[in-house]
Amino acid sequence: MRGKDLPVAFAAVICSAVMAASDASATSAEVVADARGHFITMAEIEHTPIMVLVDTGASVVALSYEDAEQAGLAPRTLTYDVPINTANGRVEAARVVLDRVEIGNVLVRDVEGVVLPRGAYEGTLLGMSFLNKLSRFKVENGTLFLDE
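The structure assignment produced for this chain is given below.
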């Protein structure tokens, strides 16, 4: 799910799917669904570009161990004591607070998240702890609209 794991053409399409609103001062972004209807986009987490899947079924932002490491969260030093149910079963995750999560020109600060243990999940889910800090988000005609 990380950008380096995606075919170059697919990554280019995803990156171009995040578009700032036409007003340069606007704090909104749009993400176009992929062919399967999933909202996959590039986010900056702690100033690090990370490919994410927007998931309204996830309570918090859930980072893979590898993405957390890339973002400088030092996952090897965290305490894994938060029980999480994943598609692959139950795991113990580590609680974190992300200083900044950005999509396009939408910036959200102090976002609750978890880091999953190595190998528990490949990729990062952008869950409700991010979406609930927005003034509004909606899906219309295959596009996810985010308003800061």
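Interim note for the steering committee: Residues 63 and 115 are 5 Å apart (CA to CA). The chain has one domain: 3-147.
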